[in-house]
Amino acid sequence: xxxxxxxxxxxxxxxxxxxxxxxxxxxxxxxxxxxxxxxxxxxxxxxxxxxxxxxxxxxxxxxxxxxxxxxxxxxxxxxxxxxxxxxxxxxxxxxxxxxxxxxxxxxxxxxxxxxxxxxxxxxxxxxxxxxxxxxxxxxxxxxxxxxxxxxxxxxxxxxxxxxxxxxxxxxxxxxxxxxxxxxxxxxxxxxxxxxxxxx
Length: 199
Hints:
Helices cover about 80% and strands about 0% of the residues.
């Protein structure tokens, strides 16, 4: 595996083929290592990977990976967890706004109702833990449903702000669209995993 510090010392940009190989190798190693262990502390360290290594390091490994790949799916899960960790109040509010309009997705996501900031943090950790301790496709589907509810909540929030803050409403609408796309990508990755085609 190419250490990110060594990669930074290479002249010029990393060759796209090598970048893709590094992304897939690291993602497979992390998932396989987490799934092979029975040690909850190892799983906890993998869940906190971004906190230990930094978002930039993880982005350097996986951010450019296709959403229909294992590194691309992991990148989306870690970014989602990081957002929840950094701003649980906003995430909990958006979840509450969207949950009633998406009850099926609420059942799949598995958050208590109504959720508080700590509840959404626990869900984000549980989803990421599920990658290593449970069925990976279930973890991806849960994250997809969570994103769908957040997208709905962001859209409702945008509607309520449209008159008073049109720029903020536009920003929220774009965020809702991005969350909806992420949900679709995570759900597609889950289907690929079930078919044995997510690598």
